[in-house]
Amino acid sequence: MTGFAARPFPSDGQHDPLLARALLLNDGATKIAIVSCDLIGISARTIAVLRARIAERSSIPGASIVFSCTHTHSAPATLRFRGVLGHVDETWWAAAQEKIVAMVAGLEQQLVPARLGIGAVKVDGISYNRQDQTRPFDTALTCVGIDALSGGSVATLINFAVHPVTLSFGN
Fold first, then answer.
1. How far is 80 from 33, CA to CA, in rounded Å?
2. Strand 114-122 to strand 65-69: parallel, antiparallel, or no bridges (unpaired)?
3. Distance between CA 157 and CA 141 in Å, rounded?
4. Please, which residues have CB within 8 angstroms of residue 147's CB and are 6 or more apart in sequence?
5. Is the pTM of this model over 0.85?
6. How far is it, in rounded angstroms, from Cα 78 to Cα 73?
7. Are 165 and 7 in contact (CB under 8 A)?
8. How far is CA 98 from CA 12, 17, 20, 138, 150, in A?
9. Strand partners, 26
């Protein structure tokens, strides 16, 4: 686990599963893949390698693959955070990367005709700048909903700038 200096000991259990999720959008001319991982972060070097590996195994251009992370401090380390926090288990991380590559490369076989909608709302009172409360911060919550034309939800993307630090070191 990484990025939480108040927790000097390793994980001894699992509270919730870690997930990687991916969405492929294709308008017939352009493909864009969006990948979200329950990790603290992924290095730029590793993202470049992942993009290249996915492009080799699919027709998704590497430059059209966007990675994001939930920035959880309760996942295995994937990089040396601030240089000292977290030990990367290279065997686990290599296996996780292979699963991510296979998942994204396999999305082309799952495409369905769909429509999307987008909305945004200002959300006040949930977050603040904990380092300098006089500085502005983003309060916009943006949501993209994607529904299959045949019915049913395909995916929901949510963006809200937050650094949740609500759980103690015991989590």
1. 26
2. unpaired
3. 11
4. 114, 115, 116, 117, 153, 154
5. yes
6. 11
7. no
8. 25, 18, 12, 34, 32
9. 31
Cβ atoms of 101 and 57 closer than 8 Å: yes
Query: pLDDT tens digit string along 122-143?
Result: 998 888 887 888 888 889 999 9
Query: For residue range 26-76, what is the model confidence (pLDDT) as tens digits?
Result: 999 999 999 999 998 999 999 999 999 999 999 999 999 999 998 887 788
Find residue 144's DSSP bridge partners. 118, 157
Q: Which two tokens stand for residue 37?
A: 């991982």
List of E strands, 38-170: 65-69, 114-122, 140-148, 153-160
Residues whose CB is less than 8 angstroms from the CB of residue 161 and which lie 6 or more positions away in sequence, other chains included: 127, 137, 138, 140
* Tokens describing residue 146: 């994607």
Cβ distance 86 to 1 under 8 Å?
Answer: yes
